[in-house]
Amino acid sequence: MPQIWMTYDELATLSGCTAAEARVLALHLSLDRRKSRDGNTRVKLDFGLMTRFFETIREGEFGLDDAVTALRETHRQMSGGFDSDQDSFRRGVA
User: Fold this and answer.
1) Can you tell me the mean pLDDT for 21-28?
2) Distance of alpha carbon 92 from its chain centroid, rounded?
3) pTM higher than 0.85, yes or no?
4) pLDDT tens digits, residue range 48-93?
5) At what angle do helices 47-58 and 8-15 cross, to 10 degrees?
6) Closest alpha carbon to 43 in 27, 67, 60, 65
7) Are 25 and 17 in contact (CB under 8 A)?
8) Cα separation of 63 and 93, whole Å?
9) Residue 43 β-bridge partners
10) More confident residue, 28 or 81
11) Measuring CA to CA, how many Å separate 25 from each of 11, 65, 68?
12) Alpha carbon distance 45, 47 (integer Å)
């Protein structure tokens, strides 16, 4: 089972409420909480909230298939190598 951790602001966006209300929600649902290295507290989503999160991804304007296609195209472009007149951009060539 994947773990999804969100800040109170992110949980608020997911839940359609304020960050303060999201904090109360997290306490009410007894969600696990941790202070991250960046100083933000994050809560681990339970099954119901993960389901809602995945639904919002599926409903997004930019489809997952389109994202995968864009990543593959970017990878193809980046791994295509250099033209012979661009040899100076290669590592170690002055």
Assistant:
1) 97
2) 35
3) no
4) 999 999 888 877 666 667 777 888 888 888 887 555 555 544 555 5
5) 70
6) 27
7) yes
8) 41
9) 6, 33
10) 28
11) 9, 33, 34
12) 7
